[in-house]
Design a protein that fits this description.
Elements (H helix, E strand, L loop, with lengths): L1 H17 L13 H4 L4 E6 L3 E8 L5 E3 L2 E5 L3 E6 L5 E6 L4 E4 L2 E7 L5 E8 L9
Antiparallel strand pairs: 1-2, 2-9, 3-8, 4-7, 4-9, 5-6, 5-8
Length: 130
């Protein structure tokens, strides 16, 4: 099942590139991997997109550019934004979400690992961790 999910994500990322994801003018600091290397791993990167696999226990404040999120496991978590606002969330394996650039910290409040894949766009808005 995970192989099918990963293959679907890779095909989706390839499709985004082929359909004209915004061109990169200058390499951006995309924040999440630098701020939280323990929980974020680059699986694929080119001039158009970066595909990041994540497994969250508790992450520090970090940022992402515009991205597509593919959730791989069911879980609950709490998301905190830079202004201190916290939001409880519930995620189900297989969900796919468009997310605009932003910063957050995530705390997994579920009983199992919280895993997913991000397809980060390089030509749009970026939100780097401060």
């Amino acid at each position: 099942m995970r192989l099918l999910t990963w293959m679907s994500t890779a095909i989706f990322a390839f499709t985004l590139v082929c359909l004209g994801a915004p061109r990169v003018v200058a390499q951006q600091d995309l924040g999440s991997v630098k701020a939280d290397a323990k929980h974020h791993k680059v699986e694929f990167e080119n001039s158009e997109v970066r595909v990041v696999r994540w497994m969250i226990g508790k992450s520090p404040m970090h940022g992402h550019p515009d991205n597509v999120q593919v959730v791989l496991t069911d879980t609950t978590s709490t998301v905190t934004t830079p202004d201190g606002k916290t939001t409880p969330t519930v995620a189900k394996a297989g969900e796919v979400h468009w997310r605009q650039a932003g910063q957050h910290a995530v705390q997994n409040t579920g009983q199992q690992p919280f895993e997913g894949v991000l397809v980060e766009m390089k030509g749009g808005k970026a939100a780097s961790a401060k």
